[in-house]
Amino acid sequence: QVQLVESGGGLVQAGGSLRLSCAASGRTFSTYPMGWFRQVPGKEREFVAAIDWSGGMTYYADSVKGRFTVSRDNAKNTLYLQMNSLKPEDAAVYYCGASFRPLYGSMWYETRFFGSWGQGTQVTVSS
Question: Is the pLDDT of residue 1 over 90?
């Protein structure tokens, strides 16, 4: 069992940057993969980025590749998402999630293999 709390969202102009954080408690943080996901009203939660337990492997949705960077600090039990060159279409509620099963290939990009969702943090991008 793990509890996740996201923070760092806000209002930013297009082209700006934000850094999201996800604080984890409960199960040993350094033992499981983590991911970032986002959701807008009326749509399903979608994959944004993921990272393995060590931080050595990262995965990104094509829509954010080259603009977003996922990282983790296992000593601080915290996951990060650095978002640069933000676009209006990046506006959403952002969630972090944990996975407690082995992930292979396309599984890294699928929302259904992650869980323990936090409350989310709102990102608004003005044009």
Answer: no
